[in-house]
Every structure is written in C-alpha cells, then in structure tokens.
Design goal:
255 residues, mainly alpha, globular
C-alpha cells in the first residue's frame, strides 16, 4: 500500500478542521478550550489500544495496565502531560509516546498509593475496550521479542487502518453493498498481482470485468479515508504522506 499523493491540495484546504490542528491552534491562542478538549478527547479515545499495549509490554499486568492507561489519558485530558511536549515535532503519535514514557517513569513510585482509577476516572474503561476490538493478528512468538515502542507503533497503525475500514464498511452498507465490502475488503491493501479477480467475481456472482472497477473504486475510497484518519493526528498537511509511510512500515513489521 503506497501513500496517495493526489489529495494534498484538498487536505491543505481542509486541514484547519482536523482534531490535532484544533488542539494545537487553541493551545497557542488560549481560546475555545472546550473545542480543543473535545478534539483531544476523541484522539485519546482512538489511542487507548497502542498505549495499553505499550504499558503491557513494559511488564505491567493487565489490571495495572488498565489503571495506568486510564490515569495517563486522564492527565493528558487535564493538560498535565502535553503542555511540556515539543509541539514542533507535530505528530500526535510522537508527542503521546514521549508523554507516556515520561508518565510511566514518574508513576512507578506512586502506584502503591493509588486506588484503581483513583480520582482521575473520566470515561468507562469498558466503553473503550469494547468500542473497536482489534482484528489484527500479530504472531505471538515474534511480538514477544518486540520493543514496547514497536508494539505501540503496530497497534497505532492497526487502529488507524481499522477505523478507515470501518468507515468504508459503513458507507457500503448505507448503499446496500455490505457484501461487496465484506468480500473485497481483504484485497484493498494487497498488491495487484496478488488479487484474483476471477475468484472475487465467482464469490460475488459478477463478471470479472465488473469486479475490477469495483475494486479500483473501493481502493481509492479506502486510501482517501486512511488519509483522513492520519490527517487528524499530524500538525500539517505536509506531514500526511510521511506518516502514511510510517504506518505502512509498522504494518509490514507485523507480518
């Protein structure tokens, strides 16, 4: 899967409405705090899985990792952790990981005095855990050797991809094409030489000549949605392609 370079101008025009740019612009101007808080809360809700995976990979038990994840995001939302981050780095993913590493160093000596969730509980943990179960299969024997940073990146990339796929599936369902999505979604990121149009045509009961344009249109829409998801987490439209390349590299590491 290669980044699509055709939509840069469109994203440049729309970029001020993305979540991370809202957070950064409001923080710089000191205005519209509620808008910035809502945007940051949505970003945090998306990122719970890579944060939780990172903490687990650091050797914490699942219950402790749940507590730490919730406490971490509570502090992020209260503005305690990102204030000192270097905003010039731009990407929310990078800032969040830096803040998480600093949080865990500071938190190690405090955990024994904290109750589960403490006074920082801000959202039902079960709501986050059940919102979007991951479908990415990671070989356990290989992932056991990964660094926490690599686990974080893979889980982040999987989350972004799954959100784009979920949106595409919802769009297809609204148009009465859910089965088309279910059949074709597995080949959206595949190399063209690996796609058997004859097999897809047989499964869908269509001619092969009808399946090829379907796959092409769905690929284009999937890439556009993926760009939109990535755009929400970087500091400028010029960073989207670099972040997409980073995402592809992270997913390749999980194979």
């Amino acid at each position: 899967m290669k980044p699509d370079n055709t939509s840069n101008r469109q994203f440049q025009d729309q970029f001020l409405t993305t979540r991370w740019s809202i957070v950064l612009s409001c923080a710089d101007s000191g205005t519209d705090e509620k808008k910035a808080q809502a945007a940051l809360a949505e970003l945090c809700k998306i990122y719970w899985r890579p944060v939780f995976a990172f903490i687990c990979r650091q050797g914490h038990s699942v219950p402790d990792a749940q507590d730490l994840t919730q406490d971490f995001f509570a502090k992020v939302l209260k503005g305690r952790l990102l204030q000192g981050a270097d905003r010039n780095r731009g990407r929310f993913r990078s800032l969040l990981l830096t803040a998480l590493q600093r949080f865990l160093r500071d938190e190690v000596d405090k955990r024994h005095a904290r109750k589960r969730g403490g006074d920082l509980r801000f959202v039902s943990w079960d709501d986050w855990m059940t919102e979007a179960p991951s479908h990415l299969s990671i070989p356990e024997l290989e992932s056991d050797k990964w660094s926490p940073e690599r686990v974080f990146d893979v889980r982040w990339a999987a989350t972004v991809v799954e959100r784009a796929l979920r949106r595409l599936g919802d769009e297809c369902e609204k148009r009465g094409r859910r089965r088309v999505f279910d059949v074709l979604s597995s080949c959206l990121a595949a190399e063209r030489q690996d796609v058997s149009y004859a097999t897809l045509a047989r499964i869908l009961g269509l001619r092969e000549t009808a399946v090829k344009p379907l796959v092409h249109r769905m690929r284009d829409r999937y890439r556009a949605l993926l760009r939109e998801e990535v755009a929400q987490t970087v500091g400028g439209a010029n960073e989207i392609d670099d972040e997409l390349r980073y995402l592809c590299a992270a997913l390749s590491a999980a194979k």
